[in-house]
Amino acid sequence: MKVADAMNEHVPHIETGTKVTAAARKLARTGVADLAVVDGYGRFVGVLSEGDLLRAVLPAFSELMDRDSLREGYDLFEEARARVSDHPIERFLIANPITVAPNDDITRAAGIMAARMIRRLPVVRDEQLIGTIARADICAAALAGVAAARG
Question: Domains in the chain, please, with CATH?
């Protein structure tokens, strides 16, 4: 079975140059943990993860412990948010992430995910993002294959 047989073609994505605030809104609206990032020509350039954005605005635990009140801790959070909200997403981009091609065997994708503890991989053909494949997609494809074989 090939990656193309199990991938999801509907990929939440965002373009380079987008501001952090807009990216955070899109992450919240779509409910995904990361967004694929493409340039103005649709070429895949990387991934923006909600975890990386969150780490950019969360104060360090030690900073919070040095504060006398919850309000002072919140002020640290607000200061960090103000510093990064108008920045373009490129600052937080995971550039050159591992990708797979649509004609790769699905076991290759599964092996990469297991070895690297990755939940989802971008599927790229000729620099263009054409989908993603997630562990859940592989599980569904594998179980459907088992059911068909027992059929």
Answer: 3-150 (3.10.580.10)
